[in-house]
Amino acid sequence: MEMIKLTIDNKVVEIEKGTTVLKAARKIGIEIPTLCYFELKGMNIENKPGGCRICVVEIAGRKNLAPACATEVMEGMVVNTHNIRVLNARRTVLELMLSDHPTDCLVCAKAGNCELQSMAQQLGVREIPYQGEQSTYRKDTSPSIIRDVDKCIMCRRCEMMCNDIQTVGALSAVNRGFTSVVAPAFEMNLEKSPCTYCGQCVSVCPTGALTEVDHTRNIINALADPTKTVVVQTAPAVRVALGEEFGMEPGQIVTGKMAAALRQLGFKYVFDTDFAADLTIMEEGTELLGRLSKHLAGDTTVKLPILTSCCPGWVNFFEHNFPDMLDIPSTAKSPQQMFGAIAKSYFADKIGVDRKNMVVVSIMPCLAKKYECQRDEFKVDGNPDVDFSLSTRELAHLIKQSNIDFNTLEDEDFDHPLGESTGASVIFGATGGVIEAACRTAYEVFTGKKLAKVDFTELRGLENIRQATIDFDGLPVNIGIAHGLGSARKLLEEVRAGKSKFHAIEIMACPGGCIGGGGQPYHHGDIEILKKRSAAIYQEDAGKPIRKSHENPDIKKLYEEFLGTPCGEKSHHLLHTHYFDKSEEVIIND
Amino acid sequence: MVSIKLSETKINQIKDICKSFNNEKGELINVLHKTQSTLGYLPAEVQEVVARELNTSTAHVYGVVTFYSFFTMTPKGEFPISICLGTACYVRGAEKVLDEFKRELKITVGETTADGKFSLSCLRCVGACGLAPVVMVGDKVYGRVAPDGIKDILKDYK
Asked: Stretch A356-370: mean pLDDT, rounded?
């Protein structure tokens, strides 16, 4: 590879041809500030529209300052990143940006996590010298995401995520000049757009323009209501990320502290979505084996591959984009909804509480879960199986509000019976985890043999699309994995064209799976954080005494006492769902 | 399922236009040009069909339509009126002419009268600076237009 030698701030750096000045500077520890530039290294996620102009630098011999993120390195280039001309220009750019930005930082949902706020601090801006017209748009609130585009700085990160990575196409820059804004088609509400609520736009937004719908007040009210029995469930990916909100290293496992905090907050029963994840494996695994056996017996009507259906962002995506294939995904509900259905039937009966007096709260790494729990098919007489879904970030706020010193909490366990879980359910939090958990159970049920090795490391990793063939005692089972909806689309188009060789495909909407979910603590583009969360997921799995869903004793008991058999009549009623065509249809109207 | 209401003839016209550009995403601007010249304007339904035919998002199509002032989402009137605001016309009082049209038709730039007869738009230079200020109604050019001459122009079309 051809190398280029250049000088940045009097330091010589040698770097591959084609690199930008910004990356060359980073290589020698010079962090040129940026707002629009965004990268998740190793996941092919990069945003460099060269739009914000914060990263301008002086290049000797050039008349104008150049944006470091969009300027390629050249042999002998001499760059200055912080002389007076650069500093003044950078400050002016920021001051102009701030002149059209609300200054309600005290009460902004993004305060403390806002990159624009940090930039103003970093550049020492103490006043906004420019005053003029301010853009004003209406706020748009959907079931999961709030758009407050007055706070948009047109960095286009959300647009990149929504279009290039997720291929959802809900957002685009519209209008021109001062009135330009990122919005859905015809500036309609997000709710009317093809938005899947994956929340990846929220997770990359540098300001408070895109945030989650906050339900913490609802929880405080429910906990204060003596007539309500409030039950909480926590998703696998939350326990490896929540610690970050309290200053811990990414990848710290805080399962015990989280259970303790939830109990201190006043939740009557502290349960685990992992229990429901084990239940999902029982149902989805049985469905997979059922379809596979029929296929092997020569039944040509059976649909393969089977697609996982745990991820509500993904469910929204295929309802919008693949309405012709609604019979391919597993009919199993997501763990969140399975938990709600069991909590408000089996468990409510057990403790003698009417479902109307039970409030089920879920703690999720996800924003699409907020929408999912409001879907009509997950309600009984208008009463939802899951009442509220909080993000990891919202739980952290709730803990902080209640004066709980999270870091010094003694570890506590989940309650029984809906708190018992296996290693298989923990790995639901990382891409490839659901299908690995399914393989652990499906292999043993199908072959009648014990697995020699529980870990299917061939299914792990962060490549966008992965495949592996698992040997089911002589029967090769082809597994596909995609994370990120753009990757999912590629696999789905193969299926549609009849070219897919897979028997089962796992899909997660968010890059990295739930560890990179739209409701997780902000990673600000640091891929190492995602890697550490992922490693922690597998570490938690390895440390579990039971690592296969079908060996979970409380799951066995649930089937014995209540459900009967997996995919049986009761399961079908409580734990399975159906999908809807949400595509747009052109109706001829002469 | 969300429905789009559009006549079959129009849908086929749009489909044919997209096809003539090989249904390529990169041809979006050309497709929109042709569609607008065929249908007169680009309402939401039309953009939905274009997006589908070119396999791109409606948000993207809408982004392009709203970026270029040439594209319009409101139907032009039977007699589209364009007022030149180029330098020569401007210094010779085009703005006053424009204001008079606005007052007379009770619409602003980019709008169409309720009866669908007239629409108002601005343009930059038709190459007849010697006749400034210039107004076009359809393809007909009117030169040296004064605010008090507007009623006479409109009379021709009533």
From this structure: 98
Instruction: Give the pLDDT band (50/70/90) at residue B1.
Output: very low
- Predicted model pTM: 0.91
Tokens, residue B106: 């009770």
Give dist(CA A516, CA A523) in Å, integer: 8
Which two tokens mark A467? Answer: 């495949």
Percent of chain A with pLDDT over 90: 95
Class of domain A3-97 as given by CATH = alpha beta
Quick one: chain A helix, strand, coil %, rounded to 5? 40, 15, 40
Count CB atoms within 10 A of the CB of residue A29: 7
Q: What is the mean pLDDT of residues A428-433?
A: 96
Q: What is the 3-state secondary structure (H, E, C) of A83-102?
A: CHHHHHHHHHHHHHHHHCCC
- ∠ CA B54-B70-B112, rounded to 5°: 110
A585 confidence band (pLDDT: 50, 70, 90) = low
Strand-strand pairing, A56-59 and A78-80: antiparallel
pLDDT digit string (tens) for A206-222?
999 999 999 999 999 99
Instruction: Please determine, for residue B5, whether its predicted confidence score (pLDDT) is greater than 90.
Output: no
- The complex's ipTM? 0.90
Q: Is A525 in a helix, a strand, or coil?
A: coil
Nearest-by-Cβ selection for B7 from A193, A194, A589: A589
What is the pLDDT of chain B when averaged over all its residues?
Answer: 91
Q: Is A377 a catalytic residue?
A: yes
pLDDT in tens, A448-463: 999 989 999 999 999 9
Give CATH for domain A217-575: 3.40.50.1780
**Catalytic pick from A52, A310, A373, A510?**
A310
Q: Note if A514 is an active site residue.
A: yes
Amino acid at A587: I
B63 and A582: CB-CB below 8 Å?
Answer: no
Which of A169, A173, A590 lies at the smallest CB-CB distance from B57? A169
Residues of B with Cβ-Cβ distance to A175 under 8 angstroms = 66-67
**Residue A164: both structure tokens together:** 């290039």
| Among A521, A529, A524, CA closest to A119 | A524
Q: Domain residue spans in chain A?
A: 3-97, 137-213, 217-575
Question: Does A172 contact B63 at a Cβ distance shorter than 8 Å?
Answer: yes
Instruction: Please name the CATH architecture into which domain A137-213 falls.
Output: 2-Layer Sandwich (3.30)
Identify the contact set of chain A against chain B, taking CB-CB distances under 8 A: 163, 168-176, 180, 183-187, 192-194, 581-590
b/e per residue, A214-239, with b = 16+ CB within 10 A? Answer: ebbeebeebbeeeebbbbbbbbbbbb
Domains and CATH numbers, chain B: 8-67 (1.10.10), 79-155 (3.40.30.10)
Q: What is the pLDDT of residues A529-563, one digit of tens each?
A: 999 999 999 999 999 999 999 999 999 999 999 99
Task: Please check whether residue A480 is in contact with residue A502, taking contact to mean a CB–CB distance below 8 angstroms.
Answer: yes
Contacts of B57 in chain A (CB under 8 A): 163, 168-170, 172, 185, 194
Give per-residue pLDDT as tens, A495-535: 999 999 999 999 999 999 999 999 999 999 999 999 999 99
Q: Which residue has the tokens 């954080």?
A: A529
Amino acid at site B23: N
Tell me, letter by letter, the H, E, C secondary structure of A32-47.
CCCCCCEEECCCCEEE
